[in-house]
Predict the 3D structure of the following.
Amino acid sequence: MKLKFIATLAVLISSICIPQVFSQSKKTPFYEIKVYHFENAGQEELIDNYLKNALLPAMNRKGIKNVGVFKPVNNNTSEDKRIYVLVPFKSTKQFTDMPEQLAKDAMYNENGKAYLDVAYNKAPYKRMESIFIKAFDLMPNMELPALKNELSKRVYELRSYEGPTEKMYTRKVEMFNTGGEISLFKRLGFNAVFYGSVIAGSRMPNLMYMTTFEDMAARDEHWNTFRVDEEWKKLSAMDYYKNTVSRNETILLNPTGYSQI
């Protein structure tokens, strides 16, 4: 009788815990940054129409929300013109299954026909690259920026920090998580969208993150505040975290009119 009671109690407890476990499984721990490199306005228009009318709606139908599309602030004058697409994925399986799912989506194929069926000598880009990222433990979910102004006026900052060695790179990741750099950014109102480790890309070892601002003046003001912050001065002066970045890149972006972030 006692064993029967314990078994019944165990079933009851497990049934109570199921919603919590399910909720935890809905985290978004991976991101893909797809970069389209193109040369002219015709290619740009073809990519924009494909993303706006075919790819983003198809991903939304498959449960992937908040897909961001951005262009560098200096895109018009740059020789290497680019479009960045940020896609959140719940798992590596969702990422690897996506091409096959898109191929079976009739609406996607119809709406993206001009891009998908373009002739080989009229390609919509020079080259396309994919960066796959695993979210940091301290910020496992994408966060939408708490900005009040128009999308077109906002500035998004994408940063990458490459480490000289795997071990030194790991220390830089620790600096963001257990070291407190993520919480510092949050306290100073940087409106971070994500932080993560690059697990597949052309530059490794590498971490990337994105912060957002209402405009360029706000961006500059935030960084000026960051540089003189006492917590940052103390953190950056620690020997353990020195020389952990061998190359860093900052890309300032504007969201497109159809970006969902």
